[in-house]
Known about the structure:
This protein is of the alpha+beta class. It is built from four helices and five strands. The chain has helices spanning 10-27, 45-52, 59-64, 115-119; strands at 33-37, 57-58, 80-84, 92-95, 109-112. It has a three-stranded antiparallel sheet with strand order 1-3-2. It has a two-stranded antiparallel ribbon with strand order 4-5. The radius of gyration is 18 Å and the shape is globular.
Amino acid sequence: MDNNNDDRCPRQAMLEDLSANIKPWIEDGDQIILGMDLNDDIRTQKITQPLTDLGLLELVTSKHGHHAPSTYNRGSVPIDAVFVSSTLRHAKCGYLAFGDGIPSDHRSIWLDLPYTAAFGHDIPPFVIPLAR
Length: 132
């Protein structure tokens, strides 16, 4: 049998290929923030496994429990997700109501990342010199 993986489900193939491309960044110490519309329940292991195997975490459901609301206005389960590196797990996050944020038939997901978590330091204040 040919091992070229042509028999893979397209969604699973995309997740595996994406994971393979993200892995070197994680190995180099880069932080990852990955937002996705997966068109399937993000609380299932078959969807999250390739990304959690890399140490990524679906932030909103991990912070607020697996009783997340639907993220598509004609759906019944959360299908939109934000996966983050372990260094960003303490970020505040949540969903907006339908129609808030960007006009869409999906809920907007928000993250509040402190500068120190995202960039590793506080950016010094901008000083405007006084002119005569």
